[in-house]
Design goal:
The chain contains 18 helices and no strands. It is 62% helix and 0% strand. It is mainly alpha-helical. Keywords: Cytoplasm, Membrane, Mitochondrion, Mitochondrion outer membrane, Nucleus, Phosphoprotein, Repeat, Signal-anchor, Transmembrane, Transmembrane helix.
């Protein structure tokens, strides 16, 4: 009887261990599949929701695309590092683990994409996110959710399973890797009108975390991407009105990648006439004018000019002339006014080596003088 009980315990342990290894393998394997399907700049699945055009992509990077080498391998006790026998034993263990993973994969889903989880599997992953406190488990589970949230049909399923508040709760973590993955999941889920309506309650928290995060960090970039998605429509842009000055600060101080991401957000805001006054009220750093020089990336200058042109086009001089006193010194309003009046701040770009930049600046200055500050010509 004792022997049978021992055999039963061993068998149960093997079954549970195999199931756990397979689940972890499926979560980890999604990194490679995600990169192949959702490479940034390529086509992706988009919800047909009218106000949410354009695809959004996962943007985490992998140092090594070979997911099989990242799997969990159990080494025997005698496979010590640094010994010849240990090296051979570890190589044999890795080979056995690889063969086992391939066999399990073939039996489990011979003709299907292993990264697309069923609703039942998504529910289990959400339970992992909700119950686990281990960073490496949370990271693997969030990567799996991010992969599946890249598909339009899964965004509704994850929402119906209560996944939005579960993932949003992870934003309170102090682990930057886990927080970044949670922001990526929410970013993919936000390409959906109903999801946006439910995610709007977290916009202030995401905005605060983005502004206070380490400059140019992955968490900051992920937060900016989520805020950009949430401002594709005009419905929730007003929630960022008090943070526009901080976005200009990030734009001036950040690296090239941060600058481009902030510009995408500012472009969304500048296209909305209702946000023109809030943009002009924003305090901008004095270093903003120094961006117009030969050393700055041409695309950064051109996109910034587009932001200014949209603001200029939406500004109604006749309606706003009596209220100019509401704009304080150091605001974007006075920056644009000096941009046109103080020629010495623009002379540096007049000798810019790029002809397109010179043409764009010349046209913008003419429009600025004609439309926004007509009286300044006197």
């Amino acid at each position: 009887m004792g022997y049978a009980r021992k055999v039963g315990w061993v068998t149960a342990g093997l079954v549970i261990g195999a199931g756990a290894c397979y689940c972890i393998y499926r979560l980890a394997r999604g990194r490679k599949q995600n990169k192949e399907k959702m490479a940034e700049g390529g086509p992706g699945d988009v919800d047909d929701v009218g106000d949410c055009p354009g695809a959004r992509y996962n943007d985490w990077s992998d140092d090594d695309d070979n997911s099989e080498s990242k799997g969990i391998v159990w080494y025997p006790p005698w496979a010590r590092i640094g010994t010849e026998a240990g090296t051979r034993a570890r190589a044999r263990a890795r080979a056995r683990a690889t063969r086992a993973r391939r066999a399990v994969q073939k039996r489990a889903s011979p003709n299907s994409d292993d990264t697309i989880l069923s609703p039942q599997e998504l529910q289990k992953v959400l339970c992992l996110v909700e119950m686990s406190e281990k960073p490496y488990i949370l990271e693997a589970a969030l990567i799996a959710l991010g992969n599946n949230a890249a598909y339009a049909f899964n965004r509704d399923i994850i929402r119906d399973l209560g996944g939005l508040p579960i993932v949003a709760k992870i934003l309170n973590t102090r682990d930057p890797i886990v927080k970044e993955k949670a922001l990526i999941v929410l970013n993919n889920l936000s390409v959906n009108a109903e999801n946006q309506r439910r995610l709007k309650i977290y916009m202030n928290q995401v905005c605060d975390d983005t502004i206070t995060s380490r400059l140019n960090s992955s968490v900051q970039l992920a937060g900016l991407r989520l805020l950009t998605n949430m401002t594709v429509t005009n419905e929730y842009q007003h929630m960022l009105a008090n943070s526009i000055s901080d976005f200009f600060r990030l734009f001036s101080a950040g690296n090239e990648e941060t600058k481009f991401q902030v510009l995408k957000l500012l472009l969304n805001l500048a296209e909305n006439p209702a946000m023109t006054r809030e943009l002009l009220r924003a305090q901008v750093p004095s270093s903003l004018g120094s961006l117009f020089n030969k050393k700055e990336n041409k695309e950064v200058i051109l996109k910034l000019l587009v932001v200014f042109e949209n603001i200029n086009d939406n500004f109604k001089w006749e309606e706003n002339e009596p209220t100019q006193s509401q704009f304080s010194q150091g605001s974007l309003f006075f920056f644009l006014k000096e941009f046109q009046v103080c020629a010495d701040k623009i002379l540096g770009i007049e000798s810019h080596h790029d002809f397109l930049v010179k043409v764009k600046v010349g046209k913008f200055m003419a429009k600025l003088a004609e439309h926004m500050f007509p009286n300044s010509q006197d």
